[in-house]
Amino acid sequence: MEGGEVKYRVILVDDEPIILRSLKVAIPWEEMNLEIVGEARNGEEALRLVREHAPHMIISDIRMPGLDGISLMKEVMAENAKRLFIFISGYSEFEYAREALREGAFDYLLKPIDHDELIEMIQRAIKKLNKQEENEHLLHSAQVLSELARERMFAELIEEGEGGSHLRHMQWLESGKLQEGYFVAVVQLDHYLKLADMWPPHERRLWLFAIRNILNEWSLSQGALTVFPFHSGEWIILFPGGLLMNREQLGQDLISQIKLHTKLPCSIGFSPLAAGITQLGEAYQQAGKALYQRFYRDSEGVFVEELGRSGDRSADAAKYPKHLEEQMLECIRTLDDQRLMKLLEETRGFIEGHAVARESAQRMLVELTVVLYREFEHMKLPLEWSLEGLLQELHASETLPDIIALLGRIFGEGISASKLSEPKEQIHRLIEKTREYIASHYHKDLSIEEAAEFAGLSISHFCLLFKQETGYTFLEYLTECRIGKAKYILKNSQVKVYQIAPLVGYQDPRYFTQVFKKMTGMTPSEYRESPSGDE
Fold first, then answer.
1. Tens digits of per-residue pLDDT, 206-228?
2. Residue among 452, 454, 465, 386 at smallest CA distance from 422
3. DSSP state, 306?
4. Positions modified as 4-aspartylphosphate (predicted)?
């Protein structure tokens, strides 16, 4: 951190007015980016100023009537140990000054004051304050990163289920909490798309931030394991299994809290009891299925999915074509409308072939419709119909062919409209712009979420277009960019390897070395010493 980035506040304390005046005039406070926010003639007045202005540095006489300098320092540092004290001491008070250093003073200066010496002392104090600020920033960044990593781990496990083999090494982080039993709540703002259309982007972020704060505070008070956003307008809360019988009450209380503070309606779906981190994806799906019941009601509510519920509905419901659903989701992600039409016809054949009763078939298609519609929302693809309107139309359809034709028309038109709205040249410009953004931000903690937001695309859609346009996944491209910059620095400077790592976006030098060797076949040091690198 550069010293000029933070303007530190200073309080001067001395019972001699002439010394206060000389300190103000003789020290180049502005040049050192310091601001005198108060002057005091005694310890009691200084204590009041400290509490009023929260200074970073106090320059004080050590001997004063009433509350002396050391007593002042003890009171101040008991409230905030990071404040720095520089004491001015008479020669006869040398032992007193040594005591001040033992109690935590930054330094002391003997009278008469040598202003050059004091300036040098203040500059050292500024360096220490800069270091404290830097450490605070790093600590905050580490805490935020830890939360984001934890939330991302949950999100990826939910999306990938047991297939997320690359995350297996992370499971120990949370498996202890989840092994004893838990359940999932999916909290969703009602009519979110309509609200999002009404809100400008900055206002939407403020609303989502406010709701997340409400959820964080409420979840903490209720003993939840964690809470995090999963999609826009949707949050996930994990509760310990011991609260299972309280789901209805928990849901009603949370709906009331969100309505009280934001006036916004929301609904909540709860999963049955699950155990172990590998069941997290299934528990999320069950909570989501419970939430589907919202579309049969006129107002927000709490919906609970019980074990065996699908079997209780009818024997046919157990035959839900999950394999077809997954293929259709992939068609939406890849904008393959022709394949989607074929899969819808396969779904029709599946229902007819299993002689599924009308009521069960309709329920099955409602579930499929909601899942596909949510994928369109998640990818920000255009659809003319609201979900409520589409479901009403589906219920009004008399025959299975009518329903399949309706879904084919609505979802097919959505994909076609998306293709038309993204000419190849426009996509090329968008990805090029994103590549420029990566080139300017590779040294930061750049995430795929940030890049997708910059491009104005959903993460799934961004990944698809970026890979089509560049031939790389986002992470592969970012890594290539970072290692390329590292190679240039290694060949054109004497910067130490451990110092290069943070310059190219790696906070852990050991991890940087591992990635570098994987990409080049050499360690950074070996690459620097090699006669010619593939620069």
1. 888 899 899 999 998 999 988 88
2. 465
3. P
4. 61
Instruction: Kindly report the three-state secondary structure assignment for every residue of 342-389.
Output: HHHHHHHHHHHHCCCCHHHHHHHHHHHHHHHHHHHHHCCCCCCCCHHH
How do beta strands 84-89 and 57-61 pair? parallel
- Rounded-to-integer distance, Cα 433 and Cα 425, Å: 12
Strands 182-189 and 266-270: antiparallel
Say how far apart CA 69 and CA 78 lie, in whole Å: 14
399 contacts 352 by C-beta, under 8 angstroms: no
| Phi, then psi, of 43 in degrees rounded to 5 | -65, -40
- Please give the structure tokens belonging to residue 213: 């704060």
**pTM of full prediction above 0.85:** no
In this predicted model, what pLDDT tens digit does every residue of 514-525 receive, in sequence order?
889 988 999 999
d(C-alpha 254, C-alpha 388), whole Å: 24
Q: Residue 76 and residue 122: Cα distance in Å, rounded?
A: 19
The helix (H) or strand (E) run that includes residue 414 is helix 400-420
pLDDT at 482: 92
Residue type, 246: N
User: Which of 512, 173, 145 has its CA nearest to residue 527?
Assistant: 512
3-state per-residue secondary structure call for 197-232: HHCCHHHHHHHHHHHHHHHHHHHHHHCCCEEEEEEC
DSSP state of 186: E
**CA–CA gap between residue 380 and residue 422 (Å, rounded):** 13
Pair of tokens at residue 184:
């999932």
Tokens 């995430």 correspond to 447
Rounded to the nearest angstrom, the gap between the alpha carbon of residue 203 and the centroid of all alpha carbons in its chain is 18
